[in-house]
Structure formats: structure tokens, C-alpha cells
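Q: I'm building a small set of examples for a reading group on sequence design. Run inverse folding on the following structure and report the sequence directly after it, with nothing in between.
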């Protein structure tokens, strides 16, 4: 495994674990407006070289995290 592959794997696992924790606490995960899961979002963010994603954290009235959106950033 090359250094780049190792770095990407670590980035993937770190993001996947973070999102799994959010989901475990009840937050819904979305990728480009569609319900998704931690693994798919982490793969999209880490392995798609020509695409960037912006996170958006949505909280309810009491401040509890209820949703995390990952939206593709498009260059115009």
C-alpha cells in the first residue's frame, strides 16, 4: 500500500467513524439531498478526487444535532 493509499484509508475510516457516531446519536445523514450512510459519505468525500463536499449541521430547537448534510460543491 502506498503512502497516499494509507492516508486516504485513514481519512476514510476517521470520517466514517465520526459519522457513525453522529448516526448512533440519532442524526440523519444526507449526501446531495438523499438519505445515506456513513460509509457511502466517507467514500464520496475521500475517494472522489475531483469533487469537494460541504458539511451542513442541522440542529433542533434545543440544540441537538438532528441532521448532517454533505452537499457537492460545484465550480461554475
Amino acid at each position: 500500500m502506498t503512502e497516499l493509499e494509507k492516508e486516504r484509508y485513514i481519512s476514510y475510516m476517521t470520517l466514517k467513524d465520526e459519522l457513525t457516531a453522529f448516526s448512533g446519536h440519532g442524526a440523519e445523514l444526507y449526501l446531495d439531498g438523499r438519505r445515506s450512510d456513513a460509509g457511502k459519505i466517507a467514500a464520496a468525500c475521500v475517494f472522489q478526487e475531483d469533487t469537494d463536499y460541504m458539511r451542513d449541521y442541522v440542529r433542533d430547537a434545543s440544540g441537538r444535532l438532528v441532521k448532517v448534510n454533505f452537499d457537492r460543491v460545484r465550480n461554475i
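The chain has a mean pLDDT of 94.
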